[in-house]
Write a structure and sequence with these properties.
By secondary structure, this protein is an all-alpha fold. The chain contains 13 helices and no strands. The chain has a single domain, classed as MetI-like (MetI-like fold, Orthogonal Bundle). The chain starts with a helix and ends with a helix. This is ABC transporter, permease protein. Pfam families: BPD_transp_1 (PF00528).
Length: 265
C-alpha cells in the first residue's frame, strides 16, 4: 500500500511536468495561432499557410534538408557504431562521441565559419580556398550532420551491442559469409537503433534555424527560420504559432510512421 502511494506521488510529478512543459506550451501556441498581428481573432493564418506557395515550398525544403541530414548521419554513424562494438576501448570512444554534445551549439556553429570560409581548412582540403563553401547547402548539411551525429551513433551502437554473440557464432558455424551474417542478422536486428536514431535526427532537423542562419545565411529557408522570422522580425506571432503547430504535427506524423514500420517489422 505504501509502495503504491509512493509510485503515485512520483508519477504525479511526471504528469505535472508533461502538463507544464508539453501540453501547456502547445495549448498556448494553438490559442495564439487564431490571432492576427493586430490581435483580432481569425482563421487567416491557417488559410494563408495552406494556400501559399511559399509555405508549401518551405515545408518541402524542410523535409528535404532533414532527409539529407538524416541520410548523411546514418551513413557516417552506422560504420562507426559497428566498429565501436568490436573495439576494446568502447568507453573512451563513447566519451569522445558524447563530448561534442557538451559544447554550446552556437560555439560549434561559429567554429565552422572559419573552417568553411575562404582559406578555411575544409575549403582548402576540398580545393575551394578561393571561394569557400560557407553559405551553401552542402555546408549547411555538413554542419547539421556533425551536430546531430552523436544522436545517431548512440542508438545504433546500443542496438548493435545488444545482439547476442551466439547468433554470430551460429551464423559462422552454419557457413554464412561475413556479408550474409551482416545482411541477414546484424542489420535487421539493429533496425530498432536505426529507427530511433533517425527519429532523433530527422525531427529536430525539421525545425533548425540557428545553424541555418549562421552557416546557410539567407539562402536556406526552412519552417524553423520562418518561425524565427515571424516572432523576432515581423512580430506576427499568430503566423509563427501556426507554423510551429504545423511543425509539431509533422513531427508526430513522422514518429507515427517510423514506429508503425518498427511494429510491422
Amino acid at each position: 500500500m505504501m509502495m503504491n502511494r509512493k509510485y503515485k506521488a512520483l508519477s504525479s510529478i511526471y504528469y505535472l511536468w508533461i502538463l507544464l512543459f508539453i501540453i501547456a506550451p502547445i495549448a498556448m501556441l494553438l490559442y495564439q495561432s487564431f490571432f492576427d498581428i493586430y490581435g483580432s481573432f481569425t482563421f487567416a493564418n491557417y488559410i494563408s499557410y495552406f494556400t501559399s506557395g511559399n509555405y508549401v515550398k518551405m515545408t518541402l525544403n524542410s523535409f528535404l534538408t532533414a532527409f539529407l541530414i538524416t541520410i548523411t548521419t546514418l551513413f557516417l554513424a552506422y560504420p562507426f557504431a559497428y566498429f565501436l562494438c568490436s573495439s576494446k576501448n568502447k568507453e573512451i570512444f563513447l566519451l569522445l562521441v558524447t563530448l561534442p554534445t557538451w559544447i554550446n551549439l552556437l560555439l560549434k556553429a561559429y567554429a565552422f565559419i572559419g573552417l568553411l570560409s575562404k582559406q578555411g581548412t575544409i575549403a582548402k582540403f576540398l580545393g575551394l580556398a578561393s571561394q569557400g563553401i560557407l553559405f551553401t547547402n552542402p555546408a549547411f548539411v555538413l554542419v547539421a550532420s556533425y551536430v546531430e551525429l552523436p544522436f545517431m551513433i548512440l542508438p545504433i551502437f546500443r542496438a548493435l551491442d545488444s545482439i547476442p554473440k551466439e547468433y554470430l557464432i551460429a551464423s559462422e558455424d552454419l557457413g554464412a559469409s561475413k556479408w550474409q551474417t551482416f545482411t541477414k542478422i546484424i542489420f535487421p536486428l539493429s533496425m530498432d537503433g536505426v529507427i530511433a536514431g533517425s527519429q532523433a535526427v530527422f525531427i529536430p532537423s525539421l525545425s533548425l534555424f540557428l545553424i541555418t542562419r549562421i552557416i546557410g545565411g539567407n539562402k536556406i529557408i526552412t519552417l524553423g527560420t520562418a518561425v524565427e522570422e515571424h516572432y523576432l522580425v515581423t512580430q506576427n506571432w499568430g503566423m509563427g504559432a501556426t507554423i510551429g503547430l504545423v511543425l509539431i504535427v509533422l513531427m508526430f506524423v513522422v514518429m507515427s510512421i517510423l514506429n508503425t514500420r518498427k511494429d510491422i517489422k
